[in-house]
Write a structure and sequence with these properties.
Elements: E1 6-9, E2 12-24, E3 47-51, H1 54-64, H2 83-88, E4 92-101, H3 102-118, H4 128-139, E5 145-152, E6 163-167, H5 171-179, E7 185-194, E8 205-212, H6 232-259, E9 275-278, H7 282-287, H8 291-294, E10 300-303, H9 305-312, E11 316-318, E12 324-326, H10 332-337, H11 356-366, H12 371-374
Helix pairs in contact: 3-4
Length: 375
């Protein structure tokens, strides 16, 4: 089991034995208040998770440890499938073993704020009207980890469409449906088992997380610098900072590569193939009127393109001594193709001295996972 990454939940360590990383928020699941203008309908509370036929079905069964996909049943009082009816017909996928984390929901809302306010997409309603209420609802959650049950809401076997769905009747399920935005939100599920084999309860738990597509995260959003009205003087200052950065950009890149002459992953030292990757993102530096940070060579790592993307998008990060920390967003198969062992945590030659403040920012604000759960 030592080949699996670990994560700490409520002071208990778990192995991540499997994961589903990219369940997109399809239109049929989007809450009516978040619908794009091009779509109609109210949305439905069951989440599509793929086909339950063939190899796809076997994969779902192995992941959820559930084999009764497509069971035909109905709650006659509500004229639909419900959790209570699912219990009667052995169609509960996982009972009180699924959970969302309050910290993940808050991080998602922080990343999604610019889309709520600036609205790159065209919605039926003004979704900015809902942001504060939804943020307050998450902040009001009493627990850090909110457990819920899921049941099989799939097409019946007799329908021959083989579409797999899960649903929950718990309040947290309704809340996360209100938070997600079409096309740019997605669901990640981690399958966890306790790392201590003496733990009496070895029943898997399922960590549900919602994330925002990289290009819409707050620090790279096209409207990141325009989400709130700017005083004329402040707006002029931002434009001046942009001009100063553009002037110093080439010098910044050269200084980064001179300080860090090769990519610590690929060992490439040809400067034509190296990217001066900001640790604290450029847009954040400019927005905070800290152009000196945007052009500070200590705020840059020399990385070859693939590893630049991993770092820039928050899949990996570093401790203050250069220890590589891999997030939980990619599969073991992907890590192996990248020639990275996510459990090894090697110390890489990134010259971390005097970068501590920038690295701390990256761990807390760019890295996709909660760093405290992994260290």
């Amino acid at each position: 089991m030592e080949a699996f990454q670990k994560i700490k939940i409520e002071n208990t360590e778990y192995y991540i034995v499997d994961s589903i990383q990219d369940f997109r928020a399809e239109d049929s699941f989007i809450h009516r208040t978040n619908k794009l203008a091009q779509f109609r309908g109210n949305g439905e509370s069951k989440k599509h998770i793929g086909t339950y036929a063939g190899q796809g079905g076997r994969n779902l069964s192995n992941f959820f440890d559930y084999d009764n996909w497509g069971t035909e049943y109905l709650d006659e009082d509500k004229n639909r499938k419900t959790f209570n009816a699912a219990k009667e017909f052995n169609a509960v996928v996982s009972e009180e073993r699924c959970f969302f984390s309050k910290s993940n929901l808050l991080k998602y809302l922080k990343d999604a704020r610019n889309e709520y306010m600036a609205k790159e997409q065209i919605y039926h309603q003004n979704i900015s009207d809902f942001y504060e209420d939804r943020l307050n609802s998450v902040e009001a959650l009493n627990e850090d980890y909110i457990y819920f049950s899921i049941y099989d809401a799939s097409d019946n076997l007799t329908q021959r469409q083989n579409r797999g769905y899960i649903r929950s009747d718990d309040n947290i399920w309704a809340l996360w449906r209100q938070l997600i935005l079409p096309k740019i939100s997605y669901l990640s599920i981690l399958k966890l088992v306790p790392s201590n084999p003496e733990n009496e309860d070895q029943t898997p738990r399922f960590y549900f997380r919602i994330l925002l597509d990289y290009q819409y995260r707050s620090f790279v959003h096209p409207n990141a610098l325009e989400t709130a009205p700017q005083e004329e003087e402040a707006a002029q200052k931002i434009e001046e900072n942009k001009r100063n950065y553009r002037i110093g950009q080439n010098a910044y890149r050269l200084a980064v590569i001179e300080h860090m002459v090769q990519c610590p992953f690929s060992k490439i030292s040809d400067e034509r193939l190296l990217i001066a990757s900001h640790i604290k993102p450029y847009n954040v530096c400019i927005k905070e009127n800290k152009v000196e940070e945007a052009i500070d060579y200590l705020n840059g790592l020399a990385l070859s393109p693939t590893y630049d993307r991993l770092f820039d998008q928050g899949y990996i990060t570093f401790t203050d001594n250069g220890e590589l920390i891999c997030g939980t967003q990619l599969s073991n198969y992907t890590w192996s193709k990248l020639n990275i062992n996510p459990t090894a945590r090697p110390i890489l030659r990134i010259f971390p001295e005097n970068r501590e403040e920038y690295l701390e920012y990256h761990r807390r604000n760019v890295f996709l996972d909660n760093i405290d759960d992994l260290i």
